């Protein structure tokens, strides 16, 4: 999983870098507005001339990523008059002037953002792992509860069957007892019928 995060980190860095380079190229082709802060693009350094062209005296060099202030643009040569970070005033080629910081200067920020991105991914991965373990626990509890439910259902069915059997046996017992009592009554009636009767004594009056 760490290897996957590292690959995502590398892919994101490459995509973001390409996007920044594309923005830098697009901005260099646009018309630059005078009086706004600018940056020297990713060339190692460029020469600062005393006038709007290469034929003018070189005053020094300006390193890539140096923040500058754009003063004006020569429409013919497309040279830009600037003031650099050392308060030097001179002219540089307009194609080297960019509205965004150079990629070299953005790399530390990119690394910081990538570190935050990686940390976020790691936190999410940790959270996913925790949720996966919690889901597994819930699944285990579900299986346990289902087993208990099945056991209770089986016991309930057995109880119902036992109660039904006991009820049938009780009814059968009462039926037998009632039959025996009825049979006994019939026998007693028959016996009484066949018992010799006493002759009635007649009193005669003379």
Defining traits:
206 residues; alpha+beta; two-stranded antiparallel sheet; 2 helices; rod-shaped
What does this structure look like?
With 206 residues, the chain is of the alpha+beta class. 58% of the residues lie in helices and 17% in strands. The protein is built from two helices and seven strands. It has helices at 2-29, 103-194, and strands at residues 37-40, 45-49, 58-63, 67-73, 79-83, 89-93, 97-98. Mean pLDDT is 77; it is low at 19-30.
Helix content: 55-70%
Shape: rod-shaped
Largest sheet: spatial strand order: 6-5-4-1-7
The main pleated sheet reads as: 5 strands, antiparallel
First-residue to last-residue Cα separation: 137 Å
Rg, Å, rounded: 54 Å
> Average pLDDT, to the nearest integer?
77
Secondary-structure-derived class:
alpha+beta
Task: List how many beta strands DSSP finds.
Answer: 7
List unreliable stretches of 5+ residues: 19-30
Sequence of secondary-structure elements: HEEEEEEEH
How large is the share of residues in beta strands?
15-25%
């Amino acid at each position: 999983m760490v290897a996957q995060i590292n690959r995502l980190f590398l892919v994101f860095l490459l995509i973001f870098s390409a996007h920044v380079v594309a923005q830098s190229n697009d901005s260099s082709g646009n018309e630059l507005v005078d009086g706004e802060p600018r940056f020297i693009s990713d060339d190692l350094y460029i020469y600062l001339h005393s006038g709007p062209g290469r034929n003018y005296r070189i005053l020094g060099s300006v390193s890539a990523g140096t923040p500058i202030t754009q003063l004006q643009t020569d429409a013919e040569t497309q040279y830009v008059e600037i003031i650099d970070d050392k308060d030097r005033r001179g002219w540089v080629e307009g194609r080297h002037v960019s509205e965004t910081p150079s990629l070299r200067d953005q790399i530390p920020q990119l690394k910081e953002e990538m570190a935050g991105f990686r940390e976020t991914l790691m936190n999410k991965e940790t959270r996913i792992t925790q949720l996966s373990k919690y889901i597994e626990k819930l699944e285990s509890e579900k299986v346990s509860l289902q087993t208990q439910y099945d056991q209770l259902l089986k016991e309930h069915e057995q109880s119902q069957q036992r109660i039904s059997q006991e009820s049938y046996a009780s009814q059968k017992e009462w039926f037998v007892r009632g039959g025996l009592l009825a049979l006994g009554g019939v026998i007693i009636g028959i016996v009484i019928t066949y018992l010799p009767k006493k002759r009635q004594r007649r009193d005669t009056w003379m």
